[in-house]
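Exercise (ungraded).
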Amino acid sequence: MTYSLMIQEKEGNTIYLPSTVSLSGQTMAAFGSVSTPCRFVSSPLLDQQIIVTKDVARRLYIPFAADVHLVLDNDTAHLGPLVGIFTAGFTKSPLRPVGKRSFFFAKLLSQEKKVGGFAFLFGAHHIHWETGTVTGYFYTESGWVQREVPLPTVIYNRLPNRRIENSETFQTIKETLKNQYGIPWFNENFFNKWEVYCLLKEHPHSRPYLPDTSLHPTAETVQRFLDHYGEAYLKPANGSLGFGIYHLVKKNGRYECRFRDEHGYNRMRIFPTLSSLWQHLFSHQKLDHYIIQQGIRLIEVNGRKVDFRIHTNKNEQGVWQVSAVAAKIAGKRSVTTHMNNGGIVKTMEEIFPDASVRQRILKRLRDAALTLSRGLEEQMGIAIGEIGFDIGLDQKQHIWMFEANSKPGRSIFKHPKLKQDDERTAMLSLAYAVYLSKKIIAEPEALLQ
Amino acid sequence: MNQQPTVAVLTEIFHKDSCVHFGSIHDFCEELANYSMQRQLIFYVTSLSMYLKNEKSGYRWIDGEWRETEVPPANVIYNRLHSRKAEHSYLFEQLIEQLKNEHVLMFNHRFLHKWEVHQYLSRHSYLHPYLPKTELFRNKQTLDSVVERFPVVFIKPIHGSQGRHIFRIENKETVFLLDYSTSMKDAVQQYASTSELFAALKERLKSAAIIQQGIDMQTIDGRSIDFRLLCHRVHDSEWRVTSAVARMANQEQFVANLARGGEIVPIDNVLQQWYERRKAFQQKMLLKDIAIEVSTILASEAEGLYGEFGIDLAIDREHKPWIIEVNTKPSKQTDMSISKQFIRPSAKAIIDYCLSLIDEKE
């Protein structure tokens, strides 16, 4: 339930609450990391409203009126929550604060109204450590505005790439906010493919979905995978967007290798022996940071391979749900179904016009994605609010999980029929932030686990 | 598919002195034809009545002239009918039905009027900051409520185009000034109350109209500037800005449409006059971002297929961009043609999109 928070023009050190809220001697009000003593007055005239006098609003750095959640603990009434979305790559233009990603974040933040609370965008240089505040970008009815607010209740990590995430600056900021200020993060890291594999292998329900995988492939490992499975993928363990992937196939005693060259073209080369392939492609290149993954005979539609992108989100009750399903069709000669690789996105309706076939496949895909989401969260032991899975169906109808992404790309949502899912996934990320905020206020010790 | 891929333009065909003419898109059709040849497509121009005949004929560009010949059915039709009446005719209905049965794709499906465009866009709250407040002009209450909130408001016919028949109302506290885009001089009228103003408007408004918050536009030498971004669909889920220009209003006019004496100016010239280089770049990118978002939303909200929009934007004195209006049959004058041999990017974009539609169907 949310309340409409209003700021009263006069001073009076008071917060007026509806009489349906049962106070139990609270003497403090809090907003994000800032709290202040004030008077509480229960008013039968208020229905779903909370009125804060100007002085209290100023001391709490409440930026403007909005719909909020109210959480009471022993001595404090918490308004909010204040949700910080952390990123990098800010421009100097306040009208387009994060360059071409500005509309992505605008869409995310504009979902806040459906959820309640305040969400804002910030980067490392927006934090004022001396005052414990941050100058955040809010997206309002009149567009982007900057306001100084307390440090947030929770932080959602949306850094654009692994390089920045691995930087020492970021790691220090994250640890400080987490440990010294007790602010929980969610989706705090990009996933590493090898780590995901190892963790899920220990999760009995997830294990059947995992293609055989091995770290640091050598010529011998490749030989073994190809003898066994006929095809295999070499992928950078920390790769994104399909970059650096090789698809190897053993066919009629010869070895085919498909990859994207440095100019972005899809290439295919054929070798008579594995050692000649190895010699040509990998003798100069260390594959230490690579994994090798069993190749899967994907189902085909009109002669093109199809796999699926499935988004899962936790909702406002902290429960996993499937928020979007799309089919990705590979380009005619490409290694993967990634969008920047000639792949195109289709809805399930477009791929499986027959409703009963579609329902059957959808159910299985959804079940798999939910099982894997729970598995990953249990095994990782960190808060995760959203995952994007690359999932395939082989020609024997077995389901395989190729990749899990903690910051899933949004390209599937450009499809006109998936616009609503775009908004729903954004809304759910914020709904989960509210859930996490309430949880951390109710049981601050939960963070320490 | 055995047949060579075929694209047709549907438009009004005029005959003058035994010559055939395709109105405002005549030269553009030639470029479409030339580029189709490069892409190995069959291309022809047709009209509603021609296309509905059993024996199909159309105009093909052969040896430097338009010749009426027998043509195959099209895989994709680019709808450039410029008459709204034609799109409301029984013939058009018949065409839609026939295309559906024959699995022929057509874009742009039809004109979208200003009020439906506004409704589609306002469903997406992240666009609200760039959408001027807009209401359907229903009665005096609408007039009162909008005039009260904004110093300047516009009243535009929902089916209007080229800046025609637009009223501008300025609230001067004691008096309302009413200006009109289609008359040039001394047209400003004064009214002491909204009742008088409403009576005057009611008499002069001939069709359904919207009433819209006026934007305090940035100007150059006192002339208002707006921006026309031509957007084309690359494939199902991607749009691109093909051309972006600024339009400077004629001294006497409050609209910058070319048809109302506006002139085209390179967008960078305008932005760099207002901003330092980096800021000018961000502003230009923001205009493009907005145009792409608008195109994407309209294509997914509106019924039927859309592959081209002309988006009019403005920037206010606080540097914020605004979505002024969307054109479903945009003029090609803003995408300038340098010479006869030159094929405009917008012509290439149209044909490339047709190809992607044909490809995808296979």
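Further reading is listed at the end of the chapter. For now, observe: Residues 213-294 of chain A form one domain. The interface with chain B takes residues 91-93, 95-96, 99-100, 102-103, 106-107, 109-110, 113, 139-144, 302, 344-345, 411, 414-417, 419 of chain A (CB under 8 Å).
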